[in-house]
Design a protein that fits this description.
81 residues; mainly beta; Microbial ribonuclease fold; three-stranded mixed β-sheet; three-stranded antiparallel β-sheet; 31% strand; elongated; binds zinc ion; metal ion binding; DPH_MB_dom
């Protein structure tokens, strides 16, 4: 693995935007790293800054994540292929 991460960030050090359902963290370029809650729940752990393309590795436990609100009338349905 030759990934070049800026840093490893604990999820509790990031800011959660409950409206957009993304976590963000200040980037040294002045923008911020972003990773979606859905991405985290999907096993992704890489936050990317859209301005400078730096990356962070997010340290988290799935159990620590807020659960996404279930869709209307549906509780965590399996995804049809
Ligand atoms: Zn940046």
């Amino acid at each position: 693995m030759a990934e070049n991460f800026y840093d490893e960030i604990e999820i509790e050090d990031m800011t959660y935007d409950g409206t957009l359902q993304i976590y963000h963290y200040p980037c040294p370029c002045g923008d911020r790293f972003e990773i979606g809650l859905a991405d985290l729940l999907d096993g992704e752990d890489i936050g990317v800054c859209p301005s400078c393309s730096l990356m962070i590795k997010v340290i988290f436990e799935v159990e620590d994540l807020p659960q996404p609100p279930p869709g209307p009338g549906q509780a965590a349905p399996p995804v049809p292929v």
